[in-house]
Amino acid sequence: VEKMASYFTDDCVYENLARGQVYRGKDELKAWAKMSFQAIPDFKLEVTSLFVSGNWLSCEWVMTGTHTGDTPGLPATGKGFSVRGSAIVELANGKIKREAIYWDLATFLRQLGVTPQ
Q: Does the pTM exceed 0.85?
């Protein structure tokens, strides 16, 4: 959590558009990350493409893991998942000032067995 937070500015904004969540500042970001890593201890994010231009970065990624812990509104399922997503990032002084992530929540929920196939 601390290593991840070190890449962000103190006044960062992290937007998880698929879940409608916004985290402002490192304290909120770290609380979200801690909960997420506890719920998905084998979490991995593989960047499959990356583009940087000036203070902007964009990437595509594949997120994988096993949902073994509860998250708000989603009790642990014990099932694995693999979903694609992307991020738009604004940089300031070499750190992430704002990040908006877009990912496939519908496939995630289907793989966890919480929505119809």
A: yes
Contact status, residue 112 vs residue 83, Cβ threshold 8 Å: no
Question: Read out DSSP for 35-92?
Answer: HHHHH-TT-EEEEEEEEEETTEEEEEEEEEEE--S-BTTB-----EEEEEEEEEEEEE
What is the pLDDT at residue 73? 85
Each residue's pLDDT tens digit, 89-98: 999 999 999 9
pLDDT tens, position by position, 43-79: 999 999 999 999 999 999 999 999 999 988 899 999 9
| Phi, psi (rounded to 5 degrees) for 102 | -125, 120
Tokens representing 95 are 């750190």
Phi, psi of 90 (to 5 degrees): -105, 130
β-sheet bridge partners, residue 13 = 24, 98
Q: Which residues of 20-49 are buried (b: 16+ CB within 10 A; e: fewer)?
A: eeebeebeebbebbeebeebbeeeeeeeee
Helix (H) or strand (E) holding 99: strand 95-103
What SS3 state is found at 20? coil
